[in-house]
């Protein structure tokens, strides 16, 4: 049993004043912490079959690829605009500190495939909801959304009320 809280570093006023940024870099530097996080994510899926794991750019990529390998699933990046080379679908979203949009390759998911949506942090939930909308546009079935860190007071869970949400650490 590892206390993952010790691997999350608070950075006040980043990237702008008033935001306390949850930095997962210490976790990424610890193989033990990463292994424990992956094991816990897998346990939380309770044996559900997963065909595709979504990682949301950029910090969602790290654990999404580890999870995809463990689940014998494909990894699908959801990226910021203009980064994916093939035909895409786009979805706009709001962030705790700005607005942006996200894209997915049009052939990334087949109708009926079972999908796990992963990101490092759940804050307002705008990013994750946009990712879920993209998955559903392609006909994917979202089995769970999982996060390393959930910032409770920003109420991201409310935005994701139609989905099963799991986070390893809640602040
Ligand atoms: O729940 P929300 O309010 O939508 O915020 C959560 C998102 O914000 C961060 O990404 P960011 O856009 O900072 O990009 P990065 O991963 O490339 O650093 C984080 O990695 C999540 O994707
Ligand atoms: N406070 C925060 N820390 C890290 N990532 C974030 N994404 C949105 N809000 C964040």
Write up this protein:
Helix content is 27%, strand content 35%. By secondary structure, it is an alpha/beta fold. It has a single domain (47-170), classed as Rossmann fold. The strands form three sheets. Strands 4-3-7-8-9 form a five-stranded parallel beta sheet, sandwiched between helices. The radius of gyration is 15 Å and the shape is globular. Adenine binds next to strand 2. One of its GO terms (cellular component) is cytoplasm.
Brief summary:
The protein is an alpha/beta fold and 171 residues long. It has helices at residues 25-28, 31-44, 60-71, 126-137, 156-159, and strands spanning 9-12, 20-23, 52-56, 74-78, 88-95, 98-105, 114-122, 141-150, 165-170. The protein has a 5-stranded parallel β-sheet with strand order 4-3-7-8-9, with helices on both faces. A two-stranded antiparallel sheet has the order 1-2.
Write the layout of secondary structure elements.
Elements: E1 9-12, E2 20-23, H1 25-28, H2 31-44, E3 52-56, H3 60-71, E4 74-78, E5 88-95, E6 98-105, E7 114-122, H4 126-137, E8 141-150, H5 156-159, E9 165-170
Parallel strand pairs: 3-4, 3-7, 7-8, 8-9
Antiparallel strand pairs: 1-2, 5-6
Helix pairs in contact: 2-3
The protein binds 1-O-pyrophosphono-5-O-phosphono-alpha-D-ribofuranose (PRP) and adenine.
What brief labels describe this structure?
about 25% helix, glycosyltransferase, binds 1-O-pyrophosphono-5-O-phosphono-alpha-D-ribofuranose, two-stranded antiparallel sheet, alpha/beta, five-stranded parallel beta sheet, Rossmann fold, purine salvage, about 170 residues, adenine binding, binds adenine, about 35% strand
